Amino acid sequence: MVADYLGSPLTDVINTCIKNLYFSSAWKLARICAIPKGSQIKSEKDLRPISTLPVLSKVYERLIFRQLSVLIDKNNVLNKNISAYRKGQSTTTVLQAIRDDIVKAMKRSESTLAFNNDKTKVMILSTPQMSRVHHLDEYDPNIVKLERIKSCKLLGVHINEHLKWDDHIKHTITPIWFFFPLPQFLLRRLKRVQFAAASFVLSHYVKNFRDVLKIGWLSINERRDLNLLESCFKALHNTETWPYYLKIIKQECRKELRSSNSIRLVVPTENSTFQDNASKLFNNLPESIRNFKGYRPFLRLSRNFLCNRVQSD
Asked: What number is the average pLDDT over the span 169-193?
């Protein structure tokens, strides 16, 4: 009902502002609310300012953002490698692409990669066998002056020189889909954390995944696989927004067979990458689930499939 009265005048106001390249100064004023960071407040540094902008300014900015996004994507203004502020792309996809590129280089036995961190430190990404052979002076004489580190934090993720997830597991427990594959000892550590959380919810000791399923949770392996299948679905059906550097390829059937309508993915030759893990997992799904084009039905059926897989083990 309110939209019927405000829609027309608000549209005229915003169109006039866009036409005249005008942004009202009243829309730039924010109401600041200071929230304490801790229990004791001794100075301004102990307060976290939260700014609340007028609603009209947010509506105006959102409309401009949508129009610019369509214009930029349609005319390919930005480079394909840029993922910031683009729909369907995030730091997660960028990190996955970085990891896949390094893994592929290691598989080809290429020279190890130097990771420059703030131009003061360097990390050589390689396998344990290669790192014993290569030294800093083999890359650049000036690089010896830098400090060599074994682990660093990049885009919120802790990466070490052998692309292992040990350091990240130590610092944070985050069920993101590019934890694939994980060593068994790290999986056991994550399982203990999940069992402890389930024990707190159920008020009794939890020692198997059947108790975890009772409260609607997936086990660590199945949660990882569900996130991987979700990303695989987006790569298949949201090709316009999904980053090209993580694209997956459908398998083409040359002959007209009964199973030619079933969607299957091409498994790449490089293993341990996103495309490899996602394709194998997707191809193992039943045909009825693979052919679903709806996002929510696909996730619901995939979740049920993974739950049944846990119960059958």
From this structure: 65
- Helix, strand, coil shares of the chain, percent, nearest 5, are 50, 10, 35
The answer on 27 and 134 residing in a single domain is no
- Between these two residues, 153 and 251, which has the higher pLDDT value? 251
What are residue 123's DSSP bridge partners?
Answer: 115
Distances (CA, A) of 262 to 122, 125, 213, 220: 47, 40, 31, 29
Least confident of 105-119, 153-167, 294-308: 105-119
Count the domains in the chain.
4
Pairing verdict, β 113-117 and 147-148: unpaired
Judge if 269 and 129 occupy the same domain. Answer: no
Residues 271 and 153: their CA atoms lie apart, in Å, by 25
Asked if the model's pLDDT at residue 177 lies above 50, the reply is no
Nearest of 184, 178, 188 to residue 209 by alpha carbon: 188
Percentage of the chain lying above the pLDDT 90 cut: 4
Residues 156 and 263 in one domain: no
Across the range 169-173, mean pLDDT stands at 60
> What is the per-residue pLDDT for 172?
58
Q: Looking at 37-87, which runs of residues are DSSP E strands? A: 47-52
Q: Which domain holds residue 22?
A: 1-75
Query: Cα–Cα distances in Å, from 285 out to 192, 226, 279, 289, 304?
Result: 28, 11, 10, 6, 11
Element of type H or E holding 14: helix 2-19
Q: Is 132 in the same domain as 205?
A: no
